[in-house]
Design goal:
This protein is mainly α. It contains twelve helices and two strands; from the N terminus they run ααααβααααααβαα.
Length: about 325
Amino acid sequence: MLPIGDVVRLVVGLLALWIGARSLVTGASKLASAAGVSALVIGLTVVAFGTSSPEAVVSTEAALEGRGDIAVGNVIGSNLFNIAVTLGVVAILSPFRVSQTVIRRDALAMAASTAVAAGVLANGTASRLEGAILVALLIGYFGVLGVAIRASNDTGSQDLANTEVDRLPRVGPPDEHTGDELRLGLEMIRVLVGLVLLVVGGRVVIDSAVRVATAVGVSEWVIAATVVAAGTSLPEFVTSVVAARAGDVGIAAGNVIGSNVFNVLGVLGLAAMVRPLAADPAVFLALIWLTVLTAFATAVLATGRRLTRLEGVVLVALGAGYWIVSAVV
């Protein structure tokens, strides 16, 4: 019998993760801007981390509890959701081709990082050393990306760096306006509230997901790779859909790329560093599915080929197909 109370708590936990991520991104971006940090740096750090913070919190807390299935399933499932559903819906709303040099180049980085993560998980485990290597690769990726954008005159590159930051009101230095100290104080509170919601929401999601899985007779992996992964991917989904509807398809695609790179290198790496991970054998099917979808997305984004509505529908169908197959298997 489906435990309604646990389902409700799971939904509430996912909502807390989404609200917490938005609060953290907005508050931290404004504080960084007020401190004189460039929009480029904010885009590469605060926004990149903020949209993937739900995945980071859930997987890290799951690792601390020794629940490798949830930690790994959340990462792989989130990346599947980002490509199949988020990119698919963007294509359905607005068929597009990517012209920005940085996005096309970083599509290759997404493919490479996915291949590295698949290699790490090929034996169903991820050690602390492997986690440290993944995190080091992420730091190197941010460094190379920062240098590339600074050296580029491509307008699209600047748009990618400023994803959500351009839509955030700027806060001037404290000595420019008398009310700035108060506003900065409020932003600090917003950041703290976001962090609290993320931590509490992550705990609620993990506990509820485990109870739901036990009650309905499915594995923790299935719940993590489907329901939990879809919930933690909401920030990326909302950001990309809003950008696509506004005509910023480059930002929409770039958000998917950045999130997937951060998830497999940063989130998986951090979780493994916290505690070595062991995943359900179902991880192999998920990795195959993710590899195929990533290869398709990379071929489209890196070559600048147009992604059509029909292909968007196919992507969404493939995502739904994985959920059905994983539940049956």
